[in-house]
Amino acid sequence: MKPFAFKSYIYRRLILFFMLVGIVPTVLLSFASYRITQNSIHEKARQYSNQLMMELCDYIERVLLPLENIAIDISYTEAVQNYFRNYSSMTDAQRRNRRNEIRMSIAVKTSLIRELTDVYVYLPNGEREILYGIDGYKFSLQDIYENEYLQLIYDSRGKTVIRSYSGNHQMDNIRRQQDTEKGIERCILIGRLVRELESGDVLGVITLRINEQIISKRLKKIDLGRNAEIIVLDANGRIVSSTNQTAFPVAEALRNDLTVIPSQFYTSEPGSVNYNDSYMILRNNIDSLGWSVICLIPYDYLDYEAYMNFRNMLLLLCCICIAMIIGIGLFSSRISNPLTELVEAMNLVKEGNLNVEIKNESRDEIGQVTRNFNLMLSQIRQLIENVKYKEKEKRKAELAALRAQINPHFLSNTLNTVRCLAHTQKAYNIENILVSLIELLHVSMDIREDFIPISREISYVRSYLEIMSYRDYGSFNVVCEVEPELEDSLVPKLILQPLVENALIHGLKNKNVGGQIIIRVTGNESNIYISVTDNGQGIPPEILPNIMKPRNPDDTVTYSGIGLSNVDGRIKMLFGNDYGIYVDSIYKMYTTVEVVLPNLKEVKHNDDSTYSG
Fold first, then answer.
1. Dihedral of alpha carbons 95, 96, 97, 98, sign
2. What are residue 576's DSSP bridge partners?
3. pLDDT tens for residues 88-119?
4. Contacts of 78 (CB under 8 A, 6+ apart)
5. Distance between CA atoms of 231 and 243, rounded to whole angstroms?
6. Cβ density class 9-30: b for 16+ within 10 Å, e for less
7. Taking each helix axis from N to C terminus, what angle separates 304-350 and 24-75, rounded to the nearest 10 degrees?
8. What gap in Å lies between CA 154 and CA 18, rounded to an integer?
9. Which of 132, 402, 475, 477 is the most buried (most CB within 10 A)?
């Protein structure tokens, strides 16, 4: 595995974990917060705008209803009634005097209403007379609109008619040019029938021309935000006034005097809210006039603050992500670099190089793994050295055994010949010695079995003691105590004879009479304990600590020539350091040599000639 690839795996996993745990929930939370904020702003904007519209409706009622009352009041004044009744019988001078009187009366009534520009009447013969305003330059509607207006008044049967008109509805004359220059070409006409006070007969029509600024000035004081618009419609859907004629498609309708806003822009229910893709649209009605006020608020203005907060949050999140990616890269390198070194070291070990060592002094888990890896390699090297040493010692023992061997068949045949001669000559003691010797030789030279039952091992020891009893003329006694359930347990061949030989040769060396050797075999399901105790001279305290050290090979006067150290090394080589020989002795009293072995019921030979139970 390449170091970069190994690093990238950790890096990608950390990035993925960070995205799942940090980025994705944060983005979802930001979006949810954005939507909640957006809805909250929409609701507050709706409530605030609706309140302003209600106030605007109240204002329009307070402004126009008094003007409607003024129109009623003017129509029923005695001067106006006489002017209509006597118009045909009066001279021009009388009419001019009457108009001056009426003008003074109207001026008194409307002195505080600066937006009232004209008051004129339509006579039954169709003529139009100015009662209040500029006589020289009269306000005049185009015939089509004037006829439409008068027809509405006559159809209303005495009710007040309020209509709005722009400069495009007027005659192209000097008055229109003057009004356009002053910015007051848009107007509101308040008209009604003039009836005879007593009989109720129709005398004519009276009309008050009101400057539209009486509403637009109020609208300009209302700020609903960027590109928001308030539109006032009369009872026939004609646009009376608007806050902004450039921000909404209806601005074209205003400039072109298209009087009806398309129905998809608003609902018909008063106080209701309608939504389209671009605007929040609210509508309130002025019931007393039959008018409507429509509020159009663009969503891009309402959502601007929430959008900016959401965008800033995303930008901040992006900056955090960049910082985290850099930080994760640095952090992952602190993890991946030691792991890469460890992987490379493992690859070298796999190739056979055991002299690898990684330097890592960190106290984290990776440092602990690295130190354990170094310790494992050190133990493996030590184990290999131990195996090499044991194999070398094993080879030495095998060579020594080969040097000591003679042709087994020749020696066995020769001893059998001597035994036959002894039997023929009735030398039975010599025959018994030879039988025991032949049995021992067969055991020592038989290479087919490495493990034998304890009962057979005790039998071989008895043969050895039979021979030694002739040498020492029966100066010692042997006692064997073996637990019956252990007789079939397997032990290494000739493991007990060297211990008995050491007890006999060294322990009872200077004891001519009363010598005793006790052999005990005890154990449990796991281990076997074989002890050989003699009541000889014991081992001096200064020699006891070194008793297990190998003896001089030349100092071998025993049958086997195998010291305690060799037997202990053989046991440890077969079964491990948990097993071996333990020596206990009190000088001039006794010596006990105990062998600890595993309790084996069967032995399997593997390819490396090791044994397991």
1. positive
2. none
3. 888 888 888 888 888 888 888 777 778 888 88
4. none
5. 7
6. ebbeebbeebeeeebeebeeeb
7. 170
8. 79
9. 132
CB atoms within 10 A of CB 62: 9
Buried b (16+ CB within 10 A) or exposed e, 112-149: ebebbbbbbbbbeeeeebbbbbeeeebbbbeeebbeeb
Residues 6+ apart with CB under 8 A from 9: none
Spatial distance between the Cα atoms of 266 and 275, rounded to a whole number of angstroms? 8
Per-residue pLDDT tens over the stretch 474-506: 678 889 999 999 999 999 888 888 888 888 888
Tokens 């060579």 correspond to: 399
Place of tokens 């209040």: 132
Q: What is the pLDDT of residues 433-467, one digit of tens each?
A: 766 666 666 666 565 678 889 988 888 888 888 77
Strand partners, 163: 189
CB 482 within 8 A of CB 515: no
Collect all residues with Cβ–Cβ distance below 8 Å to 415 and sequence separation of at least 6. Answer: 434, 437, 438, 441
- The greatest distance separating any two alpha carbons of the chain, rounded to the nearest whole angstrom, comes to 200
Q: What is the dihedral of CA 529, 530, 535, 538, to 10 degrees?
A: -80
Task: Report the SS3 class of residue 205.
Answer: strand
Which pair of structure tokens corresponds to residue 487? Answer: 């007789």
**How far is C-alpha 171 from the chain's CA centre?**
75
Average pLDDT over residues 51-66: 88
Q: Yes or no: say if 343 and 312 are a contact pair by the CB < 8 Å rule.
A: no
- Determine the Cα–Cα distance for residues 127 and 103; give it in Å rounded to an integer: 18
CA distance linking residue 233 with residue 407, whole number of Å = 136
Which is nearest to 207 in space by CA: 150, 169, 148? Answer: 150
DSSP 552: P
Higher pLDDT, 31 or 265: 31
CA separation for the pair 612, 55 (Å, rounded) = 104
Q: 356 — alpha (psi -120 to 50), left (phi > 0) or beta?
A: beta
Dihedral sign of CA atoms 105, 110, 112, 118 in order: negative
Position 610 pLDDT exceeds 70: no
C-alpha distances (whole Å) from 210 to each of 164, 166, 213, 243, 321 are: 9, 12, 8, 18, 64
